[in-house]
Amino acid sequence: GVVIGQALALPPDASLEVQVALTPRGRDAMHWQIASSPPGRGIWRVHVQGMLRRPDETPAGTLDVAGIQARLGAPEAAEQTYEKFHSMGLMLGPALQGLRELRHGDGEALGQIVLPEVAGSDAGYRLHPALLDACFQVILGAVEPDQKTPSVPVGFGSLTYFARPDGPLWCHGRVETKEEDADGKRRIAFTVANASGEVLFEIGEMTVKRLAATGATAQREGDEWFLALDFQAAPLPEHRAESGRWLVMGDPSDLGPALSAALREVGHSVVFAGAPSDGDAAGMTALLRREFGAE
Q1: What percent of the chain is predicted at pLDDT more than 90?
Q2: 40 or 69, which is more confident?
Q3: Using the 8-state DSSP alphabet, how is residue 120 labeled?
């Protein structure tokens, strides 16, 4: 099997050491992994790993391209397909736009693939990376053509290689588990054939996972949660102090009467005593006893 742990991002302004390690596992198997490390760090991050085994002498089969085309109906033009990918947040440059047409139905998709000229020659490759990437793009049509975030491969149960691709390819994906599990994963069977339908390689139990919405995609989905934004005006709650009894002293021609009137207006009991006389302690005591003696 193959496990894809994390993407290998090449920094635009720095170098990166990449290591391919092969470790024998018995007579007919070998463990392999691809890892990277910033120069001088000595810390290696494994991106993908798996097992290589000598294949059985099983002959390559054929893909019924005509039958699948009839089942899935009319193709979707490449321009329309890549517009959908762009809306999902997939920014694919010209070298990765090898999909020429895509047909999709209920949990199934068929795509025609060619190697873009700007991707360079396929000499020296058993399978050019740009061709493989374009084949994986067919997954988006098989899983859910109208989804808003893409699903990407995270592992394979098996990959069987029969022959080197030459010329246009047909890539067929079929969903084996239509419902996502708790981690957003599904399994897909994947077959790649040449123009005459001869199978070149097969991927069994390919696991794909839906990416979480981020950036512009997350913002677009968030925008759909709101029908409108509106603020409703509401009156402030009325605040009333508890009523009490007040003794107000002051010049009748000054603020005393106005303050007394304001206190009465909001429910208080007010005694306005005017201005006290200097040294008239006995008079003040008598006033307090008369008005507040019971309290």
Answers
A1: 24
A2: 69
A3: -
